[in-house]
UniProtKB/TrEMBL annotation:
The keyword Lyase applies. Belongs to the peptidase C56 family. HSP31-like subfamily. GO terms for molecular function: glyoxalase III activity; peptidase activity. Coiled coil: none annotated. GO terms for biological process: methylglyoxal catabolic process to D-lactate via S-lactoyl-glutathione; proteolysis. Residues 79-279 form the DJ-1/PfpI domain. It holds the Pfam family DJ-1_PfpI. This is Putative intracellular protease/amidase. It comes from the Bacteria. The keyword Membrane does not apply. GO terms for cellular component: cytoplasm.
Length: 365
């Protein structure tokens, strides 16, 4: 009996090891040479900057850390703003002729979160640009900002915003006055927290009856199960309670909401589309840009969520040879684990098939 059990366990282990090996073979293991040293001069999208047409004010949090409950009490975790959410929108605005200033509730140096798994060429180019980083190290204080200087506001996300964007009277005033003068107001991820309680000149609430999106309850609770205890409440719930028409898309995929001059994105993977929408709302045609590997993966998974596996596979097959190679297969792998963690095994298996096909097409070219 013991021999049979040992043989069974050994067989199971071998099968698991084989499955892991197959899974690993589907991933992107190579990193572009000198990726971390990328500069704006190396990015064709930013090679020919147009004449300056106006300015955008990006607003980031001044909260560097937060307390997260554990079984033994609390531990300190980084908060700050999401670097990718600023860096990518910054690139879009600059490429379309809009200078960008950076402000925060307290002014001065702002703390950012840099997730290496999400970093791409545009993010490293931002880090390597002295002018861009100087703006992060010396943010303007929002109470000192003149709304007349800016065609649009961009409220950058990051968990810190849940502590100093909500109920911030200086920020509420800035948003209200900007809206009254006809500026575009945009926000991504946790950034919409700043819109809560914003009262317009006529006494109405900015969010009342407006379409809006932001980091969803599902996305929040998957990452921080005790998020309500950390933040006091969930952003999606607060937006609904404020009378907004909340738009919720699939977890961790692109989703934007456009309601006139109010433009919002659900999460970091919505930044590119949101920034282009801001440019369009300013009356410009967004400059063409080659999609990043991450965007390609997000688009394909979005097609899967809306239309199913067959259409997603067709979308993969329709990509150019370069796109098939650059598509961020690791992001699909992450979504497999997300689906499994949620107990959505059928979806996890579909995404595994999508990953397999993407890997095969990349090898063929």
């Amino acid at each position: 009996m013991l021999k049979k059990i040992l043989i069974g366990v050994a067989t199971l282990l071998l099968l698991c090891m084989g499955a892991i090996a197959i899974f690993a073979s589907y991933l992107n293991w190579s990193t572009p040479e000198n990726l971390t040293k990328t500069t704006y001069a190396q990015l064709p999208y930013l090679a020919d900057k147009p004449a300056v047409k106006g300015k955008v004010l990006a607003i980031v949090t001044s909260t560097p850390s937060m307390q997260v409950p554990t079984k033994d009490g609390f531990k300190t975790k980084e908060a700050g703003f999401e670097l990718t959410e600023l860096a990518r929108a910054y690139a879009v605005f600059i490429a379309n002729g809009y200078d960008v200033d950076v402000a925060s509730p307290l002014g001065g140096a702002a703390t950012y979160v840099q997730d290496e798994d999400d970093m791409g060429a545009y993010d490293y180019a931002f880090l390597n640009d002295s002018q861009a980083m100087n703006k992060v190290r010396n943010t303007l204080k929002i109470s000192n900002v003149s709304v007349e200087d800016y065609a649009a506001l961009y409220l950058v996300g990051g968990k810190g915003t849940m502590f100093d964007f909500r109920n911030n009277t200086s920020l509420q005033r800035l948003i209200s006055e900007s809206w009254s003068k006809g500026a575009v107001v945009s926000a991504v991820c946790h950034g919409p927290a700043a819109l809560l309680g914003v009262e317009l000149a006529d006494g109405s609430q900015l969010l009342a009856g407006k379409q809006i999106t932001g980091f969803s309850n599902a996305e929040e609770l998957l990452l921080i199960p005790k998020a309500e205890q950390v933040f006091g409440s969930l952003l999606e719930d607060e937006l609904r309670n404020a009378g907004a028409k909340v738009v919720v898309g699939p977890d961790y995929l692109e989703q934007i909401a456009i309601d006139g001059r109010l433009i919002s994105g659900q999460n970091p993977w919505s930044v590119w589309a949101l920034a282009d929408a801001v440019v369009a709302a300013l009356g410009e045609t967004p400059a063409p840009r080659e999609l990043t590997g991450e965007e390609l993966a997000v688009n394909v998974m979005g097609i899967y969520q809306r239309q199913g596996l067959e259409q997603a596979v067709s979308a993969l097959q329709a990509l150019s040879a370069d796109e098939k190679t650059s598509l961020a297969r690791n992001l699909i792998a992450i979504h497999i684990f997300v689906s499994a963690k949620k107990g959505q095994w059928s979806e996890a298996l579909d995404l595994f098939e999508l990953l397999r096909v993407a890997s095969r097409l990349a090898d063929v070219g």
